[in-house]
Design goal:
By secondary structure, the protein is α/β, with parallel strands linked by helices. The chain folds into two domains: 1-30; 31-145, 3-Layer(aba) Sandwich (Hypothetical Protein Ychn, Chain: A). Helices cover 46% and strands 16% of the residues. The protein contains five helices and five strands. The chain has helices spanning 6-29, 42-58, 89-97, 106-111, 129-140, and strands spanning 33-38, 63-68, 101-105, 123-126, 143-145. Strand 3, helix 4 (106-111) and strand 4 (123-126) form a beta-alpha-beta unit. It is elongated.
């Protein structure tokens, strides 16, 4: 029976450790993808804005998509304000400049008779908010958060 030399064994362990460390480092550098799901109106949107700010402060590389439907779209309508009468437009523009995407459900726009031209320019209309959340989770491995 062949017994490997001690130096060959040590080199093998070092190589295995380097491979594991390299794989862990590569995974750590990948941006975490998160979908924030909003459907409850202005109070939820206010919480989400603060959560997203905190999220980006802790993890600036995070890939964040906000998907809205139902009453969740209200903060993305031009002129919308929070409970303290502060406009959402500045916060949305600031977060968009940091890579946050805002998606609005077309089904909601149609059912509520809201013209897409009334939405903030940082938004993107998707056919269905719930289908978009499901797609991001199932096909793109986004983590789901609901503030």
């Amino acid at each position: 029976m062949f017994a490997p030399s001690r130096s060959r064994f040590v080199r093998g362990l070092l190589l295995a450790g380097a491979l594991v460390t390299g794989a862990a480092t590569a995974q750590a550098q990948d941006a975490i993808k998160v979908v924030y799901h909003l459907s409850e109106g202005i109070p939820q949107a206010s919480r989400a804005i603060q959560n997203i700010r905190n999220h980006l402060a802790a993890d600036p590389k995070a890939k964040i998509v906000v998907v809205t439907h139902g009453l969740g779209i209200d903060f993305l309508i031009d002129g919308a304000t929070n409970q303290m009468e502060q406009p959402f437009s500045g916060s949305v523009a600031d977060l968009a400049s940091k890579g946050v995407e805002f998606r609005v459900c077309n089904n909601t726009l149609v059912s509520r008779k809201i013209d897409a031209n009334k939405l903030l320019m940082e938004t993107k209309v998707v056919p269905s908010g719930v289908a978009e959340v499901a797609r991001l989770q199932a096909r793109e491995q986004f983590v789901y958060l609901r503030p």
